[in-house]
UniProtKB/TrEMBL annotation:
Gene Ontology molecular function, alphabetical: peptidase activity
Position of the signal peptide: none
Transmembrane region(s): 16-36, 43-60, 89-108, 120-138, 153-175, 187-204, 224-244, 251-271, 312-332
Keyword Protease: yes
Organism, as annotated: Ruficoccus amylovorans
Protein name: Exosortase/archaeosortase family protein
Length: 361
């Protein structure tokens, strides 16, 4: 965690903004615990507070350097200009709107309990509150120097992931859950049906149900893809925030995580359909080791499931997606040194910097 002395050397307004933001984060966690505890598609939400805390810890040196005036190379503005004042007004209005959204979401939570609308308002409101506070407290450093517009925006972007990660952990995707599932199911069903027919297997499609020789399989039972999609978007966003240093790279990483989630989900659905084709439709929810538990009287319990085929396949493809994203990081951060720079390093007996990178903190 950030050093205690470093934190308390910051202006009191900055310290107050930090504790205020922490209170709002606590309320959002309290609200979203319902989804994390009761819905498997959003169980990864328990990791969100940990990842957010890590990102803040990782970026603390940059936060500290800017607010304490330790960036010697920067050029600070002598006074706010009209553009700066206009931007401040926009952020003040945005902060006020975000507070109202959070308040409305909190009222819905208090009166109705957890709901899609209330949770979405609270998560979106938190994002606006954190980003608004970040921009407004970065007006000047502890040495009294006014920070430039570019520095303040850069400082605000340091909190982009901690501010918006809560939208991924339930409300935003859940609000569109039904629509997303219908689209994914339609695509998955068509692709699986087409692949099996192309390979010469006897499969009849009826809506989102595939009729196999040994029973019917609803593609919804195999995988709608929502769990993979939400989990991969979150992990892709985290990797982009921590390891990539350009905004376009971050956007591309998140986009690739969505594509990989869909592709690996297709692989999962093909495997599960093939398993059902070979062993029967009920085998998907059965033990992957096909070893029923023995009851005290010596008979077999066909309902015993040590590790279901459905769940093992799901966790496997999600793990594969995360590994592929990790393998893509060196490609995203690969840098080719100019010929002149390579020659200088060779003359100095040093290795060229091509391929090396510094993670974006």
């Amino acid at each position: 965690m950030p050093g205690k002395a470093d934190f308390f050397s910051l202006p009191r307004t900055t310290q107050f903004a930090f504790w205020l933001g922490l209170v709002f984060v606590g309320l959002v966690i309290y609200d979203q615990l319902f989804y994390w505890s009761n819905m498997e598609d959003y169980s990864f939400g328990y990791l969100v507070p940990i990842f957010v805390a890590y990102v803040i810890y990782d970026r603390w040196p940059k936060v500290r350097a800017l607010l304490l005036g330790e960036n010697d190379s920067r050029l600070a503005s002598t006074k706010p200009d009209w553009f700066m004042r206009t931007t401040e007004v926009v952020f003040y209005l945005g902060l006020t709107t975000a507070l109202l959204m959070f308040l409305l979401g909190g009222l819905i939570l208090a009166s109705q309990g957890p709901s899609n609308q209330g949770s979405l308002l609270m998560a979106a409101g938190l994002g606006g509150i954190v980003l608004g506070l970040a921009f407004l407290v970065a007006r000047e450093d502890t040495k009294g120097r006014i920070l430039s517009w570019k520095e303040r925006v850069g400082f605000t972007f340091l909190f982009l992931f901690p501010a918006l990660a809560w939208l991924i952990s339930a409300p935003m995707v859940m609000y569109m859950d039904s629509t997303v599932k219908l689209v994914l199911l339609e695509w998955v069903t068509k692709i699986v049906f087409s692949v099996f027919n192309f390979l010469g297997f006897t499969v009849i499609r009826s809506g989102n149900v595939l009729e196999l020789p040994k029973g019917e399989v609803g593609v919804a039972d195999a995988c709608s893809g929502v769990r993979s999609l939400t989990g991969c978007i979150f992990v892709g966003s985290f990797m982009a925030a921590v390891f990539l240093d350009r905004f376009w790279k971050k956007v591309l990483m998140v986009g690739l995580s969505m594509v990989l989630a869909f592709v690996t989900n297709i692989m999962r659905s093909l495997f599960l359909t093939g398993w059902a084709y070979a062993y029967g439709s009920g085998a998907i929810d059965g033990d992957i080791f096909r070893n029923p538990h023995t009851l005290p009287d010596g008979s077999e319990n066909p309902d015993f499931v040590f590790a279901s085929v459905h769940d093992i396949a799901g966790y496997s493809v999600m793990g594969l997606t995360f590994v592929i994203l990790l393998m893509l990081l060196p490609i995203f951060n690969f840098k080719i040194a100019p010929p002149e720079e390579e020659e200088e390093h060779e003359e100095a007996g040093e290795s060229p910097p091509g391929g090396q990178h510094e993670p974006n903190a």
